[in-house]
């Protein structure tokens, strides 16, 4: 048994450029994308034929046949076939949660190295059989005689051919995630213009990062795509102002296709290790994963917004690490919607919310916007659900490394089901 | 990218037709494969005048497992099977009269030469004597070898190596290269060796074992072939290419068990960035291959500044800057490093529509020659390789007529393959090639252009 824990190092990352739904990766499966992403990571760090401790990844939209998605991707990759793997799924928190799992095993000495990742396709999405059809076919399958089989088959009706298409909606409310976010935006009085401003900044920051070569060792092109397909370097307030709201009701509706993330396809992976393993392999340590926290809110009956869980997770994480919200050099707040980022920050500034909901004596306070999502985030890059965590970890780790030792970064990711995953990285 | 004409000319019907019509008959070249013997048959060593290399060469051949037979009699009779190589030690030349002995030795021997045979002439450099008659005789060999290379058929080549007094120890590496299948597309060339400190003999099958080699432009074409051959010879390859080529680059790196580095080599901090990574991740670099290159063809009068500048930036300035950065960074370039710069036939012969490209590639030759003495001092070398018509994805897009003519305008009557360039580079990268420095080796099948 390891007598004490150690902090897991983030060695580096890789992702494929994110593609818009039914765009460049329309015909790529989750396994194709995750395998290519692992292979890009292998090429970057010279891991061909090597066994890493574990590969942990997942997808939010997953075919039933992909029950062992990550292990199958490992087998198709250039990693040693003796590399164990398992799947996880925590909605949009999948990628970060996978990294936390790998980091914790490294911290406990159960692993020396591991890869955490995530992948999602909204193009090659699973489509389920109509529930009536599924029941009818199950009956056919269990029939023992020809007669029984014919009888079961006679129960099939043309209407049952209509498949069940996956929807980006909460099962318990029937509302799309954007509709939920719009309720929160209205509650917190998040204006249209501030959402559009955040969106423009995201596009400009991501484009600038690409232009200066920041993503050269974080991204590997895939199927001809070399940059994120959703990125609009020429995005402007004027252009965004012309878009009609798509979520929310009436004159107060502020959320458009511009200041909301589009459906996206993509994959990401992060290489974590013990400091010793990294040194043995002559590999860099960009940052360490210091700590992480999850939270969940009752958005069904509890009167809290669907995507507000990170607002609850962060103060717990801060308290445990004896930090204030201002003790960070970089903030990576996942831009599910511009309004989500703004509502979360407003909540942390709000004395009533911090006292009543978080049980704090004083509000967490505001964060320096100049330190927020400095290399762009999901509004520009897109958001392939499970792949966002890996994108953010690798981006933040590199930014911390560039900034020098002793720098600290906060990651905050909201997820479907009223959940949130947050983490602290340190260089 | 198969050579349909070569395959046709080597078929039963094609042989008849091409012979009757007097059409070119390109041969299947003997190319190197690991485990292959140095030569597929015996070799003969002769001399013109009282040379000093005959015993040394015979010893080198026997060490490499080659059977050395006695010279072929004037009537063509021999004591065994047909010859795979004919070597002439011409270091004993004192004047033009001695050249008759070269003729007397070569003529009957060449009649016994096998397909993909090798003729290698060893001589002193013409500049190394104060006697005009001796200089004339030595220089005469260039005319002899270059013409002989044009006369040889069936994939055979002829090359000349200048070995000055005291540089005999440097001969082993070029000798092996020119006799082996590695030099399949190197023909009619003159190479000079110099005295150098040679490392102890390396594993012939893995001459680059334990070495780290960086290759720019490695995502495809000739660069990918270079990565493969260097890895085959034992090197860990750091494959560099522009970020946009990252997908293919990763595939190449994974194929050769190397490392992919996506980097625009024309970027301001590209040199320091690469140098820092080579130090941190690989403890420095043993072999540097400046292969990345682009073409932006236009007649000079129609060429805009962008075309001129981009070609210069990638093909020449980046080679200068990267090399400079490696030299300037502590621990980046190993003392006995091998730097190989890809030039081009266009840089030697010029090419219509390629003033920018030819200028950049000629510049590479100037750079190599200028740096060579400094490199020699630290036990390193820097050389240029100038490919001729090499069959790649790029040439596959040329119009059929242009491509066919372009690929036949050389003594081997066919285009070379990326692997031919790669083999030459891998040879120059060997520790044993310490005595080859500041040279320009053309891989062009003795092209008619710029000869």
Automatic annotation (TrEMBL), chain A:
Q: Which CDD domains match?
A: thiolase
Gene3D superfamilies xrefs: 3.40.47.10
Question: This protein's superkingdom?
Answer: Bacteria
Transmembrane portions of the chain: none
**GO cellular component terms given for this protein:** cytosol
InterPro entries for this protein: 3-ketoacyl-CoA_Thiolase (IPR050521), Thiolase (IPR002155), Thiolase-like (IPR016039), Thiolase_C (IPR020617), Thiolase_N (IPR020616)
Specify the Thiolase C-terminal domain's residue ranges.
Answer: 284-426
Q: Keyword set for this entry? A: Acyltransferase, Transferase
Q: Name one GO molecular function term.
A: acetyl-CoA C-acetyltransferase activity
The entry's active site is 92, 383, 414
Domain Thiolase N-terminal positions:
9-275
Which family does the similarity line name? Belongs to the thiolase-like superfamily. Thiolase family.
Descriptive protein name: Acetyl-CoA acetyltransferase
Instruction: State the species of origin.
Output: Modestobacter caceresii
Automatic annotation (TrEMBL), chain B:
**Broadest EC class assigned to this enzyme:** oxidoreductase
Domain Ketoreductase as annotated: residue spans: 211-388
Signal peptide, first to last residue: none
Q: Which UniProt keywords apply?
A: Oxidoreductase
Gene3D superfamilies referenced in this protein's UniProt entry, alphabetically = NAD(P)-binding Rossmann-like Domain (3.40.50.720)
Q: PROSITE patterns from the xrefs? A: ADH_SHORT
EC number(s) of the enzyme? 1.1.1.100
Question: Which GO MF terms does the UniProt record name?
Answer: 3-oxoacyl-[acyl-carrier-protein] reductase (NADPH) activity
Q: Which Pfam families match?
A: adh_short_C2
Q: Does the keyword Oxidoreductase apply?
A: yes
Q: Which NCBIfam families does this entry report, sorted A to Z?
A: PRK08261.1 (NF006110)
PANTHER family xrefs: 3-OXOACYL-[ACYL-CARRIER-PROTEIN] REDUCTASE [NADH] (PTHR42760:SF78), SHORT-CHAIN DEHYDROGENASES/REDUCTASES FAMILY MEMBER (PTHR42760)
Q: Give the UniProt family note.
A: Belongs to the short-chain dehydrogenases/reductases (SDR) family.
Record protein name field = 3-ketoacyl-ACP reductase
Task: Tell me which species this is from.
Answer: Modestobacter caceresii
Q: Provide the taxonomic classification.
A: Bacteria, Bacillati, Actinomycetota, Actinomycetes, Geodermatophilales
């Amino acid at each position: 048994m390891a007598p004490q824990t150690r902090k897991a190092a983030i060695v580096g990352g890789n992702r494929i450029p994110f593609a818009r739904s039914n765009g460049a990766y329309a015909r790529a499966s989750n396994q194709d994308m995750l395998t290519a992403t692992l292979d890009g990571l292998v090429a970057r760090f010279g891991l061909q034929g090597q066994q890493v401790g574990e590969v942990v990844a997942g997808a939010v939209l997953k075919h039933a046949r992909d029950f062992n998605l990550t292990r199958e991707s490992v087998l198709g990759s250039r990693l040693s076939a003796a590399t164990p793997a398992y799947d996880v799924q925590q909605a949009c928190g999948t990628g970060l949660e996978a990294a936390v799992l790998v980091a914790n095993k490294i911290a406990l000495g159960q692993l020396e190295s591991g890869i955490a990742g995530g992948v999602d396709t909204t193009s090659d999405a699973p489509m389920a059989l109509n529930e009536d059809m599924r029941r009818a076919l199950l009956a056919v399958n269990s029939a023992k005689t020809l007669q029984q089989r014919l009888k079961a088959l006679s129960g099939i009706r043309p209407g049952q051919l209509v498949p069940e298409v996956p929807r980006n909606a909460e099962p318990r409310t029937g509302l799309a995630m954007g509709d939920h976010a719009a309720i929160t935006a209205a509650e917190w009085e998040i204006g249209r213009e501030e959402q559009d401003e955040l969106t423009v900044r995201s596009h400009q920051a991501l484009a600038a990062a690409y232009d200066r070569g920041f993503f050269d060792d974080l991204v590997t092109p895939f199927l001809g795509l070399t940059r994120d397909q959703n990125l609009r370097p020429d995005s402007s307030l004027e252009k965004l102002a012309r878009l009609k709201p798509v979520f929310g009701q009436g004159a107060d509706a502020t959320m458009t296709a511009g200041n909301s993330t589009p459906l996206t396809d993509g994959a990401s992976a992060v290489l974590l290790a013990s400091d010793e393993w990294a040194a043995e392999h002559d590999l860099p340590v960009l940052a360490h994963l210091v700590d992480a926290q999850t939270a969940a809110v009752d958005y069904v009956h509890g009167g809290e917004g669907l995507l507000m869980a990170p607002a609850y997770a962060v103060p717990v994480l801060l308290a445990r690490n004896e930090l204030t919200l201002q003790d960070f050099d970089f903030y990576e707040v996942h831009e599910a919607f511009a309004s989500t980022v703004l509502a979360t920050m407003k909540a942390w500034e709000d004395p009533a919310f911090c006292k009543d909901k978080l049980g704090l004596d004083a509000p967490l306070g505001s964060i320096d916007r100049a330190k927020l999502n400095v290399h762009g985030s999901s509004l520009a890059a897109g958001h392939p659900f499970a792949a966002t965590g890996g994108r953010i970890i690798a981006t933040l780790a590199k930014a911390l490394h560039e900034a020098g030792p002793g720098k600290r970064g906060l990651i905050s990711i909201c997820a479907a089901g009223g959940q949130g995953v947050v983490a602290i990285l340190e260089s | 990218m198969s050579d349909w004409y070569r395959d046709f000319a080597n078929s039963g019907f094609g042989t008849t037709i091409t012979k009757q019509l007097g059409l070119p008959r390109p041969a299947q070249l003997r190319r190197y494969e690991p485990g292959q013997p140095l030569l597929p048959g015996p070799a003969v060593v002769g001399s013109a005048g009282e040379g000093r290399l005959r015993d040394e060469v015979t010893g080198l051949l026997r060490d490499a497992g080659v059977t050395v037979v006695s010279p072929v009699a004037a009537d063509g009779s021999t004591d065994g099977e047909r010859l795979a190589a004919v070597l002439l030690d011409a270091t004993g030349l004192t004047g033009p009269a001695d050249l008759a002995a070269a003729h007397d030795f070569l003529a009957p021997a060449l009649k016994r030469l096998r397909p993909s045979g090798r003729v290698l002439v060893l001589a002193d450099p013409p500049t190394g004597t104060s006697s005009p008659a001796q200089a004339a005789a030595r220089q005469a060999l260039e005319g002899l070898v270059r013409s002989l290379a044009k006369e040889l058929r069936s994939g055979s080549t002829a090359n000349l190596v200048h070995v000055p007094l005291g540089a005999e120890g440097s001969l082993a590496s070029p000798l092996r290269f020119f006799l082996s299948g590695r030099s399949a597309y190197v023909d009619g060339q003159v190479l000079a060796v110099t005295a150098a400190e040679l490392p102890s003999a390396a594993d012939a099958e893995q001459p680059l074992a334990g070495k780290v080699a960086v290759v720019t432009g490695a995502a495809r074409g000739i660069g990918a072939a270079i990565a493969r051959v260097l890895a085959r010879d034992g090197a860990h390859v750091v494959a560099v290419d522009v970020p946009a080529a990252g997908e293919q680059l990763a595939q190449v790196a994974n194929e050769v068990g190397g490392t992919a580095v996506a980097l625009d080599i024309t970027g301001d901090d590209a040199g320091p960035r690469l140098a820092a990574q080579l130090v941190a991740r690989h403890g420095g670099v043993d072999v540097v291959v400046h292969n990345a290159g682009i073409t932006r063809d236009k007649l000079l009068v129609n060429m805009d500044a962008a075309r001129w500048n981009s070609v210069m930036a990638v093909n020449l300035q980046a080679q200068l800057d990267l090399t400079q950065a490696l030299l300037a960074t502590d621990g980046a370039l190993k003392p006995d490093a091998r730097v190989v710069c890809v030039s081009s036939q266009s840089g030697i012969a010029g090419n219509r529509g390629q003033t920018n490209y030819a200028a950049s590639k000629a510049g590479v030759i100037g750079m190599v020659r200028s740096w060579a003495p400094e490199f020699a001092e630290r036990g390193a070398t820097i050389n240029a390789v100038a490919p001729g018509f090499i069959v790649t994805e790029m040439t596959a897009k040329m119009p059929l007529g242009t491509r066919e003519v372009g690929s036949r305008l050389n003594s081997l009557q066919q285009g070379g393959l990326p692997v031919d360039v790669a083999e030459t580079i891998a040879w120059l990268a060997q520790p044993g090639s310490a005595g080859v420095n500041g040279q320009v080796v053309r891989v062009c099948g003795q092209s008619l252009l710029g000869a």
